[in-house]
């Protein structure tokens, strides 16, 4: 089951610039930063209602986020939906014809297990499923 | 005050294709469609927790949404934050240096008053402020 929009991921060049910018925009303080080695990103989180805004900065020169920005510029990178049971949801979506970018749930930021869907089957929107690790 | 992510707007070529796609993806039924003459768009809404997914299809050949798709392809078009008082929030953001795309709140879909912020000051993200019309 899909529960809610857990977060919206936004690709930025420089957290030192973008964190204060989003703090002003949302009138809300960044409450957490975290580096995710496996994804080569530094992240910063703000809250808006039940949804988080996750700012994503590449931690290396040729990381996924720097390549995204090179191609498309800074902007929204993905939408993450919280699911009740990630394996059940992955199976359901695979059977509906969506393409999973990882076969098994993998470790993401913010103590989550995550799976991405290929954007070619989702109207160009990169979708993440995520579930709190127990 | 910013309250929550009210909706995420997604630009699509054809609602007849994208509505069933997002119904499958979110495992949730589209509960409303609406044409907004002033914006030259047809919209369709689905729910995910307290946030709506708003699919946007151009109702004319050279509308804002068809131009967006021509340039960037289908995908996320904007994020809308619900605000308590739109005029207060517009004033606050103008004073913070953000650029408002309309001077006064204007009528949007879903019985809302809305205002957009220029994406050049928001990390390339088109931001909408919205408030239920009373």
Primary descriptors:
homodimer; 134 residues; alpha+beta; eight-stranded mixed beta sheet; 3 helices; 8 strands; 23% helix; 41% strand
Task: Summarize the structure in short.
By secondary structure, chain A is α+β, with helices and mostly antiparallel strands.
Structure description:
2 copies of one chain form a homodimer. Chain A is of the alpha+beta class and 134 residues long. Chain A contains 3 helices and 8 strands; from the N terminus they run βαβββαβαβββ. Chain A has helices at residues 15-26, 64-72, 86-95, and strands at 2-11, 32-36, 41-48, 51-58, 75-83, 106-108, 112-117, 127-132. In chain A, strands 2-3-4-1-5-8-7-6 form an 8-stranded mixed β-sheet. In chain A, a hairpin with a 2-residue loop joins strand 3 (41-48) and strand 4. The first copy, chain A, is globular. The interface between A and B is large, with 41 and 41 residues.
Quaternary: homodimer
Rg of chain A, nearest Å: 15 Å
Order of helices and strands of chain A: EHEEEHEHEEE
Structure classification of chain A = alpha+beta
* Low-pLDDT windows of residues of chain A: none
Helix content of chain A: 10-25%
- Biggest sheet of chain A, open or closed, and with what strands and sense? 8 strands, mixed
Topology diagram in text:
Two copies of one chain form a homodimer.
Chain A lengths: L1 E10 L3 H12 L5 E5 L4 E8 L2 E8 L5 H9 L2 E9 L2 H10 L10 E3 L3 E6 L9 E6 L2
Parallel strand pairs in A: 1-4, 5-8
Antiparallel strand pairs in A: 1-5, 2-3, 3-4, 6-7, 7-8
């Amino acid at each position: 089951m899909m529960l809610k929009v857990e977060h919206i991921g936004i690709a930025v060049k420089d957290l030192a610039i973008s964190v204060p910018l989003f703090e002003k925009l949302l009138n809300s303080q960044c409450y957490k930063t975290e580096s995710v080695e496996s994804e080569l990103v530094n992240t910063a989180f703000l809250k808006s209602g039940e949804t988080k805004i996750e700012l994503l900065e590449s931690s290396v020169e040729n990381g996924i986020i720097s390549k995204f920005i090179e191609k498309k510029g800074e902007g929204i990178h993905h939408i993450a939906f919280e699911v009740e049971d990630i394996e059940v949801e992955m199976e359901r979506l695979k059977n509906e014809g969506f393409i999973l970018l990882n076969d098994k749930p993998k470790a993401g930021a913010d103590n989550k297990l995550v799976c991405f869907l290929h954007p070619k089957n989702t109207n160009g929107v990169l979708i993440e499923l995520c579930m709190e690790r127990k």
